Amino acid sequence: MNFDDVSNYIQSLYKQKEVLTQKEYTSDMHVKEYIPTVDDESAAFLRLLIHLVKPKHILEIGTSVGFSTVSMALAAKPFGGKVTTIEFDETVAAQAQENFEKSGTADSITLLRGDTVEILQQLHGSYDIIFQDVDKRLYSLLLPSCLRLLASCGLLLSDDALFPILNLAKRWENQIAPVRSYNELLMRTPELESVLLPVGDGLMLSRKTEAA
Ligand SMILES: C[S@@+](CC[C@H](N)C(=O)[O-])C[C@H]1O[C@@H](n2cnc3c(N)ncnc32)[C@H](O)[C@@H]1O
User: Fold this and answer.
1) Is residue 145 lining ligand 1, measured as CB closer than 6 Å?
2) Looking at ligand 1, which residue's alpha carbon is closest to its atom 19?
3) Domains and CATH numbers, the chain
4) What is the residue-wise DSSP string for 141-174?
5) Gene3D superfamilies from the entry (predicted)?
6) What is the pLDDT of residue 18?
7) How sure is the predictor about 16, in pLDDT bands with cuts at 50, 70 and 90?
8) What is the mean pLDDT of the chain?
9) Helical segments of the chain, H only
10) Taking a C-beta distance cutoff of 8 angstroms, is the pair 58, 27 a contact?
């Protein structure tokens, strides 16, 4: 089975649906240089999960221009769910905020600007879903903060979990080993039960156990 064929076939099916696509979202932005966002398949999975779980509080680590943020906020809006998202690049953060306003989701999103390593240490509260999508070299370092901030039975979604087996461009090669270690760390973490889903570039879905 060819992974690219599988991915292309799945993407072609999503094109038939009337939803916000990554292409539409990014087409009229003035910022052209940004770290890639999730693809349409991952955005569809995040929306579906939000419809099922109905989280009141979602935390996203790594906003970029806000495609995943807006996708989640639109899904959470009908039941009053709010998204807090963290980004340290001022240029993309400004574009993301503009996109939140244009998409009518600004009142559901709080954008925290700064380094997530510092922000997470100071952040309090309890999140029903945490979407981890920052620099992959930070995933393991940030796991203790994610566990502290995750509600009992909450879900931690970690993007790009299949980096170790994808044919990545050279610029992403330094992210492969950190993802491999992080995947193994998640599997060893007693407070979490995890499954790696072949959605997008791989989505690790972890549930914080009731006892934790
Ligand atoms: C993969 S992108 C996020 C994509 C976004 N979640 C989406 O799918 O639309 C990762 C983002 O994390 C940001 N980032 C990287 N290191 C960071 C840090 N230490 N603190 C805050 N943001 C960081 C990058 O600037 C980049 O925009």
Assistant:
1) no
2) 115
3) 31-208 (3.40.50.150)
4) HHHHHHHHHEEEEEEEEEE-TTGGGS---GGGGG
5) Vaccinia Virus protein VP39 (3.40.50.150)
6) 67
7) low
8) 94
9) 3-14, 22-27, 40-53, 67-76, 90-102, 116-122, 139-149, 176-188
10) no
